[in-house]
Design a protein that fits this description.
This protein is of the alpha/beta class. It has 7 helices and 9 strands. It is globular, with a radius of gyration of 17 Å.
Length: 228
């Protein structure tokens, strides 16, 4: 029988726990004028192979869509209420918001993603502003409450979960709130927004980023509750 862990993934102390499990490196990135240190796996391929199955840990990479969303997070106005990031992975957009003084809730369902998100908060001295929590979109904890600002970068890569995501956004987004979702250009993603428009007003902008692999188009959507 596997012993019950003495901690929940994402609790304080994650950086030390990860260093006990893996060889880590540290990447320093500049996101929207905020310099962040992100813990990374020294051998990500070995980690992916060790997990097995089809559930690939996409969160181990800092995607262009997260860079764009981090730029928006840096411009959020000061406010007392926390920001929620869905499917946070490394949590870069949320960490940028925290570095700018906002309280942030980083959420994910993958235990190791939660550990890396908490470790990043600790590495950047943001532990007091950042809460890390497991969030199952099919049954969100009612105690989580609602949020006026929700962030989500690259959370649309599985079309099967689109109806679930629309429902969880409807539950967690405050009446006067806005959910910001960013993703790289993919034709099938339009299926999510076809569903979302039944519950939300949807606005879209786009940005082109240049990187080692060429030009990438990132779309940024703002969702607000329909008034009709």
């Amino acid at each position: 029988m596997t012993p019950t862990p003495l901690f929940a993934p994402g609790e304080p102390g994650a950086l030390a726990r990860l260093r006990a499990r893996f060889t880590l490196t540290q990447d320093q990135v500049d996101l929207a004028g905020v310099s962040l240190k992100l813990p990374e796996l020294a051998d990500p391929l070995a980690y992916i192979e060790s997990r097995g199955g089809d559930d690939l840990p996409y969160w181990t990479k800092l995607w262009p869509a997260a860079l764009v969303l981090a730029g928006l997070a840096a411009q959020l106005p000061p406010a007392a209420e926390p920001v929620l990031e869905l499917g946070a992975g490394l949590g870069a957009p949320g960490l940028v918001a925290a570095a700018k003084g906002r309280r942030v809730v980083l959420s994910d369902l993958d235990g190791d993603a939660l550990e890396f998100a908490r470790a990043a908060a600790e590495l950047n001295g943001l532990g007091e502003l950042v809460r890390v929590t497991a969030l199952d979109w099919t049954k969100p904890d009612p105690g989580l409450g609602q949020f006026r600002t929700i962030l989500g970068a690259e959370i649309l890569y599985q079309p099967a979960i689109y109806p679930v995501l629309v429902e969880v956004l409807a539950k967690l987004l405050a009446t006067d709130g806005t959910a910001f979702i960013s993703h790289e250009e993919r034709p099938f993603v339009i299926g999510f927004f076809d569903l979302a428009r039944e519950r939300f007003q949807v606005r879209r902008t786009q940005r082109k980023l240049r990187g080692p692999e060429g030009e990438t188009t990132v779309y940024l959507y703002a969702l607000t509750h329909r008034k009709d």
